[in-house]
Amino acid sequence: MAAATTTPLKTKDFVSDLDVRWCPGCGDYSILKNIQKVMPELGVPKENVVFVSGIGCSSRFPYYMDTFGFHTIHGRAPAFATGIRASRPDLSVWVVTGDGDGLSIGGNHLVHTIRRNLNMQILLFNNRVYGLTKGQYSPTSREGMRSKSSPQGSIDYPIDPIALALAAGATFVARTIDVDAPHLQETLHRAHAHQGTAFIEILQNCVVYNDNEWLELEDRKTRISSALSLEHGEPLVFGPKGDRKGIRIHDGVPSIISLRDGDDPVSHGVATHNESHRSASYAFALASLSRPEFPLPIGVIRAVEKPTYEAMLHAQVDDAIEARGPGDLKELLHSGDTWPLS
Amino acid sequence: MASDSSSGERQNLQGNVACALGAIAAGCRFYAGYPITPSSEIAEQMAARLPKVDGVFVQMEDEIASIGAILGASVGGVKSMTATSGPGFSLMQEGLGYASQAEIPCVIIDVMRGGPSTGMPTRPSQGDVMQARWGSHGDRPVIALAPASVGEVFEQMLRAFNLSETLRTPVVVLIDEAIAHLSETIDLSSSMPTPLASRKVATGDVAGFLPYAATDDGVPAMQCPGDGYRSHMTGLTHGEDGFPTQDPATVERVMRQLLGKLDRNMEQIECFETLECDDVDVLVVAYGITARAARRAVVSARERGLRAGLLRPITLWPFPERRFRELASSANTVLIPEMNAGQLCVELERLCPHPGPVVRLNRIDGECISPRQILEQIEKLHAHD
Amino acid sequence: MGASADRGMMEIRLSGSGGQGLVLGGRILARALLLDGLCVAQSQSYEPTSRGGLCRADVVAAESTPDHPLVGELDLLVLLDPIAAAASLELLRDEALVLADSSLADGFSDGELADVYLPGVELADVDLADIKVHSLPLYQTAKRLGAPRVANIVALGALTTLAGRWSQEAMEAAVLEEAPRRSSDLNLQAVRLGLALPEGQRVAR
């Protein structure tokens, strides 16, 4: 067995020797670079890091990380990751999925994995299209989107990843953008520090089949109006100087308030961001903000503490061993079918 | 009252309970599953017993997730299993294929009930025999065991884990509902001596490590996250380095290695029992609960002077071809009673050395085949001689 | 079918309707036979209905693991409910012994088994000539203890005496081991009353 890594790690330690093969200009390149940058800063020995993916463009991710890579079955990465975390709580587990892998074929697993609150990070790259199969609409595609499998326009209503994660009881939910390096890195740090399942939707550009889907959010000039930057304890304001606006939430229903320069947003009824609000209804109100009526919230939408699945699981194991003595296999086997179900 | 009988060594155990105990005795420390009749007692037993031996039980959202979770845990280095029945076994086929391709040890129990579809959840069947062989797409190495008694369920669980670990391949244990819910007297102390095997673990240099490098026995050494090796697992066809490849020469090489794994280790895989097979006119081939009826029928036939014999495959896949061919070549007739519309018989018809009659005896009404039915058939076949 | 290779083999069925404690009864009987040094195989019908429907528990016992663990020719049959008879009578072997509850079948002691249990049913294949039928007040006895639900335990006691093929001590011990602990005294009383029940009772044939 090899010795654990002792010298401080650098970004290049997480770069595998495989040629990265996404389409030139794909948003995944930026995400990969930022994750490779953040990894050494987390202080986890790289042999203890596992990247788990399903099938899709995003799911090629483990090839390019010089960690333990687990490229599993379409949609099933959360289930594989559950098995790893539940049996090996010493490992740092990252699930990489996409809007097809995570929300279509794997929607059920995503919901239940989030619900269990295992300590892991789930990164969902949302490009609103099926890229690997070359351009069919996905569960997050806009209504009316014309694609190879919706030539007359999609008549599916899209699903919102953030609202879904909240409904599953997620303890950490955030949204970030592929090309916003500082924000992406900060969000990864926050997700890793969180105890429990951290769900991050990363808005990602598919340059070939759905180019510029998030352009107004990726472009620094338009972002100020199209994005609602979330900062814990700060008012929900957006828009450039001279056209400042804020979000008011009344009876759970958000609306936009115009502000003049120098106005105190809070005294004008603008809500203050509280990511750890006990009730999830505030987070649901944020999740309901969608383009083009509202700016899209970017940042940590919800972050609350709940005991993790594996903490409770291993507490039960400890209790069982304490109550019945360390497992004597012979005694266990010979206890027949009269084992007390206490 | 016999004095030794209350010592706890001899017990009446249900098949499903023996399955769970066998798994724990084999070193299984991770179970993920989704309840389904008639297998649920296995999950309940594991939930109650695993924590005491520092093991983990997880109830998953479906059978697809169940097999995913056990593959995750197995890659983490823990002996893992799940149990299900027909409808769940169908859902697990993609995971089984992945386990074969990525060479991840795991044990899957399929308690066979009447099918197709939801079928008859509480009635016995042997309808999943061909699904165990061909249920997942593509060519892959397949091992399936078919115990015929509660005691054998326990023993075969030890074998299932040993084979799975040493050969890095999923092992399916097919238990019919009749055996699963049967309670029989077994002596666990006499079952225990089976030595436990574990997977080969990678050693040596981290640099240039090839996770799927060829070895003498065709089984690559395994590594876990945390071991220090950079490794990659995928369901895509991969080269020795674990990364996808479509290079024909490499694909041919690694696929031959994958599929040849069983042939190179057939001695430990093959397992069968014969009864009264020295001079056979009617060779009965039976497995699971049907083999118990066949055993009684063969004994009765012999008492009547009829030359009947029994070949009972315990390892159902790969089927003991060589022994079958030997026995079948000297028998006039091969009789195959099965609780399905005819599955293993197709394989036997293929293997039969001469075009001689392979006679099917099938029951698909949710009832077990009785010794009387088999005996009557043996008598009829003799009358034709 | 001819004589079995299984030495000392016997096939026993407890039969009635759901809720009569037959599965527990089968487990107790299997335990008693195990305590007497036999190898047993016990099975039961797993029907979706837990109450009211046909229910049975079968036990096959022999000196070593029986070749075939399921019943095919019954040596002993307990009937607690008329609903159970049809499926079991044709499995009786010659010289089989039947224990039936008399409170459910007045006039049964006349030996008219088929008339009582299978009114209007043709029993062409069933030759009851050599069957020994015992009709005993199993439910009535249980009611005297204030607990009709222990009729299954009374039946096991009576069957032990009538069959004479396993020990009373083993049966008593099995009842205490397998039945719920909180009602140990009641169950012990029930099995003892059952053990004494055949004495002095009229044997139908």
Topology:
The complex is a heterotrimer of chains A (342), B (385) and C (205).
Chain A: H1 27-38, E1 49-53, H2 61-64, E2 68-71, H3 77-87, E3 92-98, H4 99-105, H5 107-116, E4 120-126, H6 161-167, E5 172-177, H7 181-193, E6 197-203, H8 215-218, H9 220-226, E7 227-229, E8 237-238, E9 245-250, E10 253-258, H10 281-287, E11 296-303, H11 309-324, H12 329-334
Parallel strand pairs in A: 1-2, 1-3, 3-4, 4-6, 5-6, 7-11
Antiparallel strand pairs in A: 5-11, 8-9, 9-10
Helix pairs in contact in A: 1-7, 4-5
Chain B: E1 10-14, H1 15-25, E2 30-33, H2 40-49, E3 56-59, H3 63-75, E4 80-85, H4 86-91, H5 93-102, E5 106-114, E6 120-124, H6 129-134, E7 143-145, H7 150-167, E8 170-176, H8 177-180, E9 183-187, H9 188-191, E10 232-234, H10 248-260, H11 266-269, E11 272-275, E12 282-285, H12 288-303, E13 308-313, E14 315-317, H13 321-330, E15 333-338, H14 344-351, E16 358-362, H15 371-383
Parallel strand pairs in B: 2-3, 2-4, 4-5, 5-8, 7-8, 12-13, 12-15, 15-16
Antiparallel strand pairs in B: 1-9, 5-6, 7-14, 11-13
Chain C: E1 10-17, H1 22-35, E2 39-44, E3 54-62, E4 74-79, H2 85-89, E5 92-101, H3 113-117, E6 132-136, H4 138-144, H5 151-163, H6 168-178, H7 184-196
Parallel strand pairs in C: 1-4, 4-5, 5-6
Antiparallel strand pairs in C: 1-3, 2-3
In the CATH hierarchy, what is the architecture of the largest domain in chain B at level 2?
3-Layer(aba) Sandwich
What is the global morphology of chain B? globular
Task: Kindly name the structural category of chain A.
Answer: alpha/beta
How many helices of chain B? The count is 15
Q: What best-fitting shape of chain A do the alpha-carbon axes yield?
A: globular
Tell how many strands the DSSP assignment of chain A holds.
11
Query: Can you give the mean pLDDT of chain B?
Result: 94
CATH class of the domain at 11-218 and 307-314 in chain A: Alpha Beta
Q: Please tell me the CATH architecture of the domain at 11-218 and 307-314 in chain A by its name.
A: 3-Layer(aba) Sandwich
Low-confidence stretches of chain A: 336-342
Query: Which percent range fits the helix content of chain B?
Result: 25-40%
Question: Nutshell version of this structure?
Answer:
The complex is a heterotrimer of chains A (342), B (385) and C (205). Chain B is an alpha/beta fold and 385 residues long.
